[in-house]
Write a structure and sequence with these properties.
heterodimer; A: alpha+beta; 6-stranded antiparallel sheet; 8 strands; B: mainly alpha; two-stranded parallel ribbon; 2 strands
Chain lengths: 219, 415
């Protein structure tokens, strides 16, 4: 038979200590996202930024470079990104609600921010972490322009179209209905051409759970 | 101390001079009631030894623990000489670079500015204000008024304009008193026709525009016009990025177009709003200067391939702006003729307009400010008491826990 596996306590301890030290020596935001503007390299990793970003990096500023010189780090103000301005005409902006600045940065221009996103005129309901904070792409919306920037009349959405089911599937649905209830289904089953689900991790997890609860555990 | 006594004598002398000629009291510049320190001095004192506070703070920083905003506010409150102002500056810098930097209290900033003004360290307060990123000094509007006022009273309009620039960067032109004071400072500085660099041009233009947007009368609209014209000049000379980078300004091109739109609006408006003559003259001069410089640029421009590399996709729009310059000049001439025929040009200079405006409105604007200040002072006091209470409770709890731990250790040792 196979020899019983050796319990290596010291190796375990070493592994734990190494994990702890790695956790403690994580680079701060200001070190991770520092940039040498002459060579366009990050000093921490030595990697260069993509060429298409160089013009933006020279001309525009990071979110925290703007936030550092604002009262309360700009909580409650609106910020937009130049790439959004170029992409679409509908207004998209972040409203900042919480800021955690990296105090080891010399000019306080790195950190994390949280806020409410309004994308293409549709406001979301909960606070999320602001993505791409370190991108040189951000612009402040001045107070006297806020009103003009944010009022936006969305076009009415076109009505959802419906199509009949494929014949075999339709037959299956009618048979299932008859088996379940005993009556014949009077209305034609129709398939909407738009599904109101976002296909992300949470959706698949909930589907999996629903399927498991329906099937039940195997004996 | 002597300097504060002197400044108080000067303000008293100014007040006496104002009283003598006219029967009706006209307050121009902030009245003595506004700059009075008696309300501020009347709060309850919290005396602490500065050296002890400094030692505690240093020890907390060494142990990597967070320093509370209460200790910083205590330090700033207990400043009693000029050297201590320097020390307080150091501790403000350290606090800003600590994890609690967001929690620097409003009253600490207000007290810092008051102490600087009291001990004659006005330039120090201006320095910390300019480097607000490093010191975290973001005064509220009352404090801004207190800071602009002594510079105006001394006639040092350049520094007054730098304070107004800071107000603009914070977009803090909410109170009418702040708007009046800043327009006054800007108008007086401008009347001296100084030679401005591009960045100063941009700052002045932005301050004039943003403060002018709040006022809907002759003064405000002339300020908007001049601001737009200056920003248009920077736009043409340096590109739109040179205008809005680092400033709360809109990134849309065509500031000169917006200046002409202001003129059109005044020409078409039926009420009694006019534009000041010297702003129109200045705008005309500016346009002439720009067109002549652009002509000389295009004629002598063969300076090699570097220029071509710089003129890429983004700058196509800047070049398009420059090409519109002759159109702007013709439109400007048309509009100024229109304004003159409709009698919408005020022959007083911007500075005179602003001074009359200030004389009429400043007293009325000051009253609500003072009431709000009093209520704010009380709110600050309540908050401070709450913080002190919380600190005491935390200290008691820490002491209790320590005693329990010691008792447990002693019991464990005995057993």
């Amino acid at each position: 038979m196979v020899k019983k596996k050796q319990v290596r306590l010291i190796a375990e301890m070493a592994r734990k200590i190494r994990a702890y030290r790695e956790l403690k020596s994580r680079p701060r935001d200001s070190q991770k996202y520092a940039l040498d503007y002459d060579t366009m390299k990050r000093p921490l990793t030595g990697k260069m930024l993509p060429v298409l970003a160089w013009a933006d990096v020279r001309k525009e500023s990071r979110l925290f470079s703007i936030l550092a010189s604002m009262r309360m780090f700009g909580v409650g103000r609106l910020f937009t990104r130049k790439s959004w301005l170029e992409d679409h005409t509908e207004p998209s902006y972040w409203q900042i609600t919480k800021v955690k600045v990296d105090y080891t940065a010399e000019n306080m221009d790195h950190g994390k921010a949280w806020g409410i996103l309004t994308s293409k005129g549709k406001q979301e309901s909960d606070v999320k972490e602001v993505e791409k904070v370190m991108y040189h792409d951000w612009r402040l919306i001045p107070k006297h322009e806020e009103q003009q920037f944010t009022d936006f009349e969305p076009l009415p959405e076109p009505p959802v179209r419906y199509v009949p089911y494929p014949p075999l599937l339709r037959a299956m649905l009618l048979a299932q209905h008859k088996k379940a209830t005993g009556r014949v289904l009077t209305e034609e089953p129709i398939l909407p051409l738009k599904r109101d689900v976002r296909l992300n991790k949470d959706y698949f997890r909930s589907q999996e759970q629903a399927r498991q609860s329906k099937e039940g555990t195997e004996v | 101390m002597a300097s504060s006594v002197l400044s108080r004598c000067v303000t008293a002398a100014v007040k006496v001079k104002r009283f003598s000629p006219a029967l009706s009291v006209r307050r121009w510049l902030l009245s003595a009631a506004y700059t009075d320190t008696s309300l501020w001095e009347a709060r309850e004192k919290d005396p602490h030894n500065l050296a002890q506070l400094a030692v505690t703070m240093d020890r907390t920083y060494d142990k990597n623990l967070p320093v509370s905003s209460l200790s910083v506010s205590r330090f700033v409150d207990n400043i009693s000489s000029r050297e201590e102002v320097e020390q307080a500056e150091y501790y403000l810098y350290k606090f800003r670079h600590s994890p609690n930097c967001w929690y620097l209290r409003d009253w600490s900033v207000h007290s810092w500015v008051r102490q600087c003004l009291k001990y004659g360290a006005r330039d120090k307060s201006l320095y910390t204000l300019k480097n607000k990123v490093q010191y975290g000094i973001f005064p509220d509007d009352f404090t801004f008024n207190l800071l602009i006022d002594p510079y105006i009273k001394d006639g040092d309009f350049k520094s007054a304009c730098s304070v107004v620039e800071e107000v603009m960067l914070q977009e803090a032109f909410d109170l009418p008193s702040t708007q009046i004071l800043s327009l006054y400072a800007l108008g007086s500085y401008f009347a001296a026709r100084p030679q401005l660099t591009m960045s100063e041009d941009r700052a002045m233009g932005a301050s004039l525009l943003i403060s002018g947007l709040k006022q809907d009368n002759t003064v405000g609209l002339s300020a908007q016009l001049l601001g737009n014209a200056l920003l248009g000049k920077v736009e043409i000379l340096g590109g739109i990025h040179a205008v809005f980078r680092g400033m709360p300004l809109f990134w849309g091109r065509g500031y000169l177009y917006r200046a002409l739109a202001v003129m059109e609006r005044v020409a078409a408006a039926s009420d009694d709003i006019k534009l000041s003559k010297d702003t129109l003259d200045h705008m005309g001069e500016l346009l002439q200067e720009l067109s002549s410089s652009s002509d000389s640029d295009s004629s002598g421009e063969e300076s090699g391939g570097e220029e071509d590399k710089k003129e890429e996709a983004g700058d196509e729009d800047d070049l398009a702006e420059k090409a519109k310059l002759p159109q702007y000049i013709t439109r400007f001439k048309e509009l100024s003729c229109q304004l003159e025929t409709r009698g919408k040009v005020d022959s007083a200079s911007l500075q005179d307009l602003v001074s009359t405006f200030a004389q009429q409105n400043l007293a009325a604007a000051e009253k609500p400010d003072l009431e709000q200040y009093e209520s704010r002072l009380q709110a600050w006091e309540a908050e401070k008491r709450q913080l002190i209470q919380r600190e005491k409770e935390q200290r008691e709890k820490a002491n209790q826990e320590r005693e329990e731990r010691l008792a447990a250790k002693a019991a464990a040792q005995q057993a």
